[in-house]
Amino acid sequence: MNKTKVSAVMCESYDLPLLEEKIRAAVELAGGWPEKMKPGAKVLLKPNLLSAKTPDQCVTTHPEFVRAVIRELRRKGVEKITIADSPAGVYPWEELWEKTGMKKVADEEKVELLPIENFERVEIPGYGHIPVLKELKSFDVFISLPKLKTHILTKITVAVKNSYGLVVGESKSAFHAVAPSPRKMANFIATVFGKIKPDFVIVDAVESMQGDGPANGRPFKSGIIMAGFDSVAVDSCACTAYGYKPQDIQLLVKVSELGHGTMQKENIDLVGDAAEKLGRLKIPRSKSDILHRFPERMFHLLTLLLTYRPFIVQENCIKCGKCFKACSQKAIFSEGGSFRVNSKGCILCMCCLEACPVKAVELRSPFQKFMALMKFFKK
Ligand code: SF4
Ligand code: SF4
Fold it and tell me: Less crowded by CB within 10 Å, the N or C end of the chain?
């Protein structure tokens, strides 16, 4: 049986000529661009644009990384290139494109920006019909450009999770009610992935996210670019950067079980000068990681008793109301002009953390909340 190739090459910065050279190397090592990538092809690029954050915050795929991919596609003679994504909630698109640096790249490189608003309903067995980017079928090639990050619910977010961005953002928070636990959510995303698999993946791990991703972590200079045809194999290699084995990640277990890719080490050929480095990076995980070690049915009890809930830090809040709009459970309410979380209604979907533009929503344990209140009374 032929092994699935995944490449990992060193790339220490977002310097454009270096990125172009290293992306070219990563693509070649992984087996070259998909055959469908011909000069007349219509190509969809899907970076991770989780929310309107600037590139230095490491929440989104770096704009220079996207630019370098576009330049490489131009070298192949590809003209029709579109960038699309759909953050959770109702999003002001101009703000998203502007802050993430995508507008500048799109204007300068003359590519299209496509807000995911038009949709068609795709049947997802066991979950009904899910609204997915309507124009998806009109593209010849779909290239996923994820960022390597931690994720409070799924432990990591790389290629498999990145495809989920093709589901209309406005509907996403409601799906947390359909799948109200990390395991159920992972199973749901794995099933959706079967309908929106990319043709090729190139991972921006030049700077990765450590800590409480996908929105509130901090940058970690990992200095790597990864590539491959099989998203599951790419993620299985990428998770080792956090010291995980693929079988520790429910999303990978499920997506592999469903036959959408391979996570078995013996079926993957990891090549490139960063192949050894990946497993040695030891990028710090989310502090919620410990929760995943307990049985599923204890999850909510544990989160209530000893661990973290979303908490709005009033001093940092700019009262924009984005968290309020993003919460499908109406667990965020407005009181005297301030926004607060009602823990009872919260299903820990983390949409409010993702939606907040200024990191005013934090995960805190009851103990931390108590200490924060004490600080307030001391003032
Ligand atoms: S408060 Fe935040 S984490 Fe809780 S349900 Fe609402 S959006 Fe989700
Ligand atoms: S917590 Fe964040 S998203 Fe919510 S109102 Fe404050 S600044 Fe806006």
Answer: C
